Sequence to fold (233 residues):
Amino acid sequence: MIVVVDYHKGNLLSVERGLRGAGAEVVVSDDPALVRAADAVVLPGVGAFADAAASLEELGLGAAVTDAVAAGAPFLGICLGMHLMFEGGTEHAPEAGPLPAGLGLVSGVVGLMPRTDEAGAAYKIPHVGWNSVEWDEADPLFDGLESGEYFYFTHSFAAPESIATIGRTTHSVTFPSAVRVPGHPVWGVQFHPEKSSDAGARLLANFVTVARAAAGRRGAAAAMAEDTVLPKE
Fold:
C-alpha cells in the first residue's frame, strides 16, 4: 500500500489517479499511524514551503514520514514535496527568526530562483510548462526513460545543488530537478509526473515497482521472523 500524504494543502486526486493507473494500491491519508505503516510514501505539494512545513508539523505527519523512511519505505516527493525533503526553505519565511524546517532528508535550503541568468539577463519566473530533465547515471526511477525527457513544471523556488542531485533542468539557469538520498529509495522531483503524459506515467510506474519490491522484502523478513523458534532457556 502506498500512502499519499494529505497535509491539507492542494489537490491530491491527480497523484492518486496516476499511482492507481500504475497498478498501485493507494490510500490518501492524514493519519500518522497509516503513514508509518505504509509500504511506500508519496508527498505531493502545492503551495508555499512555510505553510506546508507548519501543516506537516501540526498534523504530526513530518515525524511519521521520516519514521517511515527510516524503516525503509520508498519515498517520492513531488514539486513542493521535493522541497520539503530539504533542511529548510525561504518561501514565506518570517523576516526574523529561524527558517521554516523541512524533513531534513537532504542537506541545504530551498530558495527563490535567481531573477537573472549568469549573463545578467532577466527571464520569466515562475517557470511554467514543459522542460527537459537531464541525468548522467541510470536510476530505477528513470528506468525506460531517456535523459532529456520532457516533464511538466510549475514553480518559482528551486532546490540547491547537493550530493543528492541526480537530474537537472535549465530554464535560463540550471537547477536540480530530481534528487535521491544516496543509497536509499528516497526520491524527489521538481516536476509533476502526474501531469507529464507518458513520461510521467512511466516514472510513477517505476516508483510503484520499487515500492512493491520493498514491500515483498519486508513481508518475507516478517514471515521469517515469525517462523523463527527461540530456544528454551
Notes: Helices lie at 13-21, 32-36, 49-59, 61-70, 80-83, 197-227. The chain has a mean pLDDT of 92. Residues 139 and 193 are 16 Å apart (CA to CA).
